[in-house]
Design a protein that fits this description.
The protein is of the alpha/beta class. Helices cover about 40% and strands about 30% of the residues. The chain has a single domain, classed as Alpha-Beta Barrel (TIM Barrel).
């Protein structure tokens, strides 16, 4: 049985780590390189860095940050935000990232998933899906959660896997930042129906929420931000707790 992964997420804006609630109400959380190094030392399995102000003029700054992170970390890390073509991916992987995450660009141009998988390998292509439950089902949102699409989350997840995505990063906008628990139903649906790992994101507030998403949600990994950034759930304690609850983790 593969060990479940704990993944802190660092949203980066203007070179600093920030965190919001339901994708708004942003506040600062610290230096992304220092935080990443601290998480690696605490036993995080991987990290995710998202450039949330990925305009063209700030892209070079983020590449430089990725280079610093790669020199500092000894665990795998994924980067995303504003990636729109193969050249963007090549630059970030050359800078030292292990995987890249695409969201809006994949919805706008689904063939991009295939191109990236063929050129760089499925193992480094993560498709991030921001999902929100509306009366007609689970809907995919793009542009950092600002724009609804006509795509159904389950159908879109299946399509990107068929196109070569090696992993799905599923963020529930309904749960993001609320600390009321992960979106178990949709996470379980994707985990049980797709042959790639599902990373659950959005809603972590207690150690028990991680148990729930691994056992009931069938997630392969759980991603969180504020509970780690602000010291509410230390990673070593979380992993010991999961172990006691018979969740397989790397200690």
């Amino acid at each position: 049985m593969l060990a479940k992964r704990i993944i802190p997420c660092l949203d980066v804006r203007n070179g600093r780590t920030v965190k919001g609630v339901n994708f708004v109400n942003i506040r600062e959380a610290g230096d992304p390189v220092e935080l990443g190094a601290a998480y690696a030392a605490q036993g995080a399995d991987e990290l995710v860095y998202l450039d949330i102000t990925a305009s063209v003029e700030k892209r070079r700054t983020f590449v430089e940050l990725v280079e610093k992170v790669a020199r500092t970390l000894n665990i795998p890390f994924t980067v995303g935000g504003g990636i729109s073509n193969e050249d963007d991916v090549a630059r970030l992987l050359d800078a030292g990232a292990d995987k890249i995450s695409i969201n809006t660009a994949a919805v706008d141009n689904p063939e991009l998933v295939e191109k990236l998988a063929l050129r760089f390998g499925s193992q480094c292509v993560v498709v991030a899906i921001d999902t929100k439950y509306l009366k007609h089902g689970d809907i995919v949102y793009i542009h950092g959660g600002r724009t609804p699409t006509k795509r159904i989350t389950q159908d879109w997840a299946r399509e990107v896997v068929e196109r070569g995505a090696g992993e799905i990063l599923l963020t529930s906008m309904d749960h993001d930042g609320t600390k009321n628990g992960f979106a178990l139903r949709i996470t379980r649906e994707l985990s049980e129906s797709l042959p790639v790992p599902i990373i659950a994101s959005g809603g972590a507030g207690t150690r028990g929420h991680f148990v729930d998403v691994f056992k009931d949600g069938k997630a392969d990994a759980a991603l969180a931000a504020s509970v780690f950034h602000f010291g509410e759930i230390p990673i070593p304690e979380l992993k010991q707790y999961l172990k006691k609850k018979n969740v397989e983790v790397r200690l």
